[in-house]
Design goal:
The chain is elongated. The termini are far apart. With 118 residues, it is mainly alpha-helical.
Length: 118
């Protein structure tokens, strides 16, 4: 489980989050599966459910390994004075699903910052 399927650099602190998520998905899927065989279809469907959330953590982890682009630097600067920006940025570490919807796209991120007066 966890790192056996997907390994994330510790820079984003997502290892424990994703290990716990994997355990919860796998437990529920196993219990719900009943007496049916644990075949390739089961394995692929179970991983797909896990990956639906884990892909966001992996993207965040991988992106944090590269130098931050200008819009991310602008976000960090805005977060120093705009609490709403700071809170949204901080929440990507507990739930990285929101990350790709705004901080991976320069135009969307800058528009968001402008809407918050940053």
């Amino acid at each position: 489980m966890g790192d056996a399927a997907v390994t994330n650099d510790p820079v984003a602190g997502q290892g424990a989050n994703m290990a716990a998520h994997a355990a919860a998905v796998y437990e529920r899927r196993i219990l719900d599966h009943g007496d049916r065989p644990f075949d390739e279809e089961f394995l692929r469907a179970t991983f797909a459910e896990y990956w639906e959330k884990a892909r966001h953590a992996t993207r965040l982890s991988n992106d944090l390994l590269a130098p931050p682009p200008d819009h991310v630097l602008a976000t960090l600067e805005a977060a120093q004075t705009v609490p709403e920006v700071a809170h949204r940025f901080a929440r990507i570490f507990s739930d990285p699903a929101d990350y790709a919807s705004w901080l991976t796209d320069a135009e969307i991120a800058m528009s968001y910052l402008a809407s918050k007066g940053a």
